[in-house]
Design brief:
By secondary structure, the chain is α+β, with helices and mostly antiparallel strands. The protein contains 3 helices and 8 strands, in the order ββαββααββββ.
């Protein structure tokens, strides 16, 4: 069977606070429709200069620990050369250097091959832009 490629975008609202938003279910629904029991790769991409994609445990504090660590590494103050938007917004433009704007994940039998505690998470520290687009692309 020939390789197939499917892609779609969806939007989420992250609001006016820092978030580590679990988007694993969006990925699973997409794969149920397009992977149909096949093996392949899922690429998750956020086309924004101030957001990233991470794979981590959620709900047990790791998501909040990640945000706390980013606050320590990238303080929201006026040290940043990139200056527009809210105070300290320049740090949001550095975020994708630490939390990449993409992740490529294995798909086995139409399912994400994640570890038992792993989730796909949109990381957004930018309080100036409450709407985010995520692109899912499956090759299999």
């Amino acid at each position: 069977m020939a390789d197939t490629f499917h892609t779609l975008t969806f939007e989420v609202t992250t609001g006016n606070r820092e978030v580590a938003l679990d988007i694993t279910e969006h990925c699973a629904v997409f794969l149920n429709e397009h992977a149909a029991g096949r093996d392949g790769l899922l690429n998750v991409f956020v086309p924004h200069a101030t957001a990233g994609i991470a794979v981590l445990e959620t709900g047990a504090g790791s998501d909040e620990d990640l945000l706390a660590t980013l606050r320590e590494l990238l303080p929201a103050d006026d040290r940043w050369r990139h200056r527009h938007g809210s105070s300290g917004h320049g740090r949001d433009h550095v975020l994708p250097g630490l939390v990449a704007p993409h992740a490529t994940l294995p798909v086995i039998g139409g399912q994400l091959a994640l570890g038992i505690w792993q989730s796909v998470v949109l990381v957004d520290t930018n309080r100036d832009n409450p709407r985010r687009t995520v692109r899912l692309s499956y090759l299999g």
